[in-house]
Design brief:
Length: 270
């Protein structure tokens, strides 16, 4: 059911809406050049996509029966997207806008891992401390990762920080940055406290507006428009809806590659 027995919006519906918003955002990303002229409104609408995906992820993490498998799947998807992007940029080089860094799986992996770390620390400080130490060790490993990888694979060309982070996760270097990882953690722990959830989300959106006023690249703040996702989240009815779990894992790389290819090699955007 799309609306569910209790009405409102189920997980499937929220994900499909997020997919639509993401598609509009990526159309703008690849076709914003003067020769094509995709309108700015597309990426404005697209600001809703990631918060919706993140919201569905934290509820999915809450309900999943096996968090280890859940995290492993996210990490493996992150590895795939890293290798996929690397292969595209290597075998299909462009003179202009490349494939880019598309890897929300890495952000979601961090959200799930840190949620589990916090909950374990609350129950057992020794185990929680070990997990925190392991996370810190991975951050140190990232610092030396490029030297290690070039030593093991000397034939590899230069690796970007995003590529290395997709292999050895860095808590700050990812598609949306640490602030959106923090948002996912806050979503999880406030998901059943709607009033606090709303206050937190509104404050976060306001902070995005202020941040872009100071550091924005487009000249006008747009990330704060993620506030439009809040009414949709509040209509969540705690129902799963249709399955199609793997559709979302396949659609993500498929549509980004198609848009990249059309923009660069069909329309000749570059």
């Amino acid at each position: 059911m799309i609306l569910g027995e209790n009405r409102g919006l189920n997980t499937f519906t929220l994900k499909m809406l997020a997919v639509l918003f993401m598609l509009l955002d990526h159309i703008y990303l690849y076709f914003f050049s003067p020769s094509v002229g995709a309108p700015l409104i597309l990426t404005c609408i697209g600001r809703v996509a990631y918060p919706l995906f993140l919201f569905c992820m934290v509820w999915g993490y809450h309900y999943t029966k096996n968090r280890k498998i859940y995290l492993l799947r996210l990490y493996l998807c992150s590895l795939f997207m890293t290798g996929f992007a690397y292969a595209i940029d290597y075998y299909l080089p462009t003179n202009g806008f490349g494939y880019g860094n598309h890897n929300i799986f890495l952000n979601m992996f961090w959200v799930g891992l840190l949620i589990s770390t916090i909950e374990i620390f609350q129950k057992d400080r020794t185990k929680g401390g070990i997990m925190l130490g392991a996370i810190f060790a991975v951050q140190i490993l990232y610092f030396y990762a490029e030297i290690i990888l070039h030593t093991v694979f000397p034939f590899m060309p230069g690796l970007s920080g995003d590529t290395i982070a997709g292999i050895i996760p860095n808590i700050f270097l990812n598609e949306y940055g640490f602030e959106f990882i923090a948002l996912g953690i806050l979503m999880y722990f406030l998901k059943e406290k709607k009033s606090l959830f709303c206050v937190m989300y509104v404050i976060f959106s306001i902070a995005q507006f202020s941040n872009e006023v100071v550091y924005g690249e487009l000249g006008i703040p747009i990330q704060w428009l993620m506030i439009a996702a809040l009414p949709l989240m509040l209509r969540y009815n705690n129902e799963k809806g249709y399955g199609m779990k793997y559709f979302f894992y396949v659609f993500y790389p498929a549509h980004t590659f198609l848009l990249f290819y059309v923009a660069n090699f069909v329309l000749g955007k570059v």
